[in-house]
Amino acid sequence: MLPTFNIFGYEIASYGFIIFLGIIIGSVVAVQYFSKFHNIKKEDIIYAILYGIIGLGIGAKLLYLITNIPFLLENYETLDIWNTLMQMLKGGFVFYGGLIGGILGVFIYSKQFKISFKDLLLILVPVIPLVHGIGRIGCLFAGCCYGMEYHGFGAITFHNSNLAPNGIPLFPTQIIEAICLFIIFIVLLVTYKKFLGTYETVGLYCILYSIVRFTLEFFRGDLIRGVYFNVSTSQWISIAIFIVGIAIFVYEHKKR
Amino acid sequence: MEEKKSNGFAVASLVLGIVAIVFNFIGLSIVGLILGIVGIVLGVMAKKRNPNGMATAGLVLSIIGTVLCALIFIACAACVGAVGSAASMM
């Protein structure tokens, strides 16, 4: 679609720019709306977000590198390792790694400055699907996270993509995932007051997103990612997150 | 003593933020990205311990430096594909 654009002679990646916009929008929503229900200074939420973003970047990159170890080992002799590593550092993130890294970043902030981790988490979790959904629109621009070959309604055909196969109609995984994520955001927003004070919101998010991700993985066409026993890395993590989500939701619900 | 230490964090954050921005313009975005991230952490620590103008400036410049470097360096943050594109370049 539009992987990059130029500003003052600098080539800017659309994905990076859109995810940046998403983070700004998500941060504003967290600070202006969700913080109202918790006794935490807005300043602390902003700092926690900064720590979370750093953790997100490191976690997403680490998991991406880990999932590519088998590829590197298999092609060790034919690849220019330095060039490949630089390419891997420049592009390639795995959302689940980012999610875990981001939560860890917020946890470190809460421990470092003795601020309630629970409150921070409850403020930030509902905006994750919002930011992620906006990020998926970035995926559409970049041509990554593309779907399998598909000739039905809504098929997308890339023409100048370095990532997606050009000229082949593909299943619109990016658009569908973005829509699902915005719906999850609305569900969390609507149920937020009902679940206030417990981790039920976190559990609900884990359950809903893991279902969406697990299902959409079957329609993905980017098969370079790790696949173990016919199930992708993200699907394995989805199963784990689904179980954790159910456990959190049921436990917190009973505690109420 | 604590105030002196936090001032040190603020100065370090300010310097790292400026260096990150400069590195972005001379094509060393990856180094700038790392320095910017360290600058953000130091800036937050300085702001929490002793909020002053220098700490704020350090934090803001580090954020700007990190964002600029990330936007330039991360040419294409695909969920996959970098390896594929690297392989196809061979």
Provide an overview of this structure:
- The complex is a heterodimer of chains A (256) and B (90).
- By secondary structure, chain A is mainly alpha-helical.
- Chain A has helices spanning 14-32, 42-67, 69-74, 81-90, 95-112, 117-124, 128-142, 173-191, 200-217, 233-255; strands at 4-7, 10-13, 156-157, 169-170, 227-228, 231-232.
- Chain A is globular.
- The model of chain A has no long low-confidence stretch (mean pLDDT 87).
- Chain B is an all-alpha fold.
- Chain B has one domain (2-89).
- Chain B contains 4 helices and no strands.
- Chain B has helices at 2-25, 29-49, 53-73, 82-89.
- Chain B is elongated and about 35 Å long.
- Chain B starts with a helix and ends with a helix.
- Residues 76-90 of chain B have low confidence and may be disordered.
- Chain A binds chain B through residues 3-4, 10-13, 15-17, 19-20, 43, 47, 50-51, 54, 57, 64, 68, 71-72, 75, 78-80, 83-84, 87-95, 109, 112-113, 138-139, 142-145, 162-163, 222, 224-225, and chain B through 30, 37, 40-41, 44-45, 47-48, 63, 67, 70-87, 89-90.
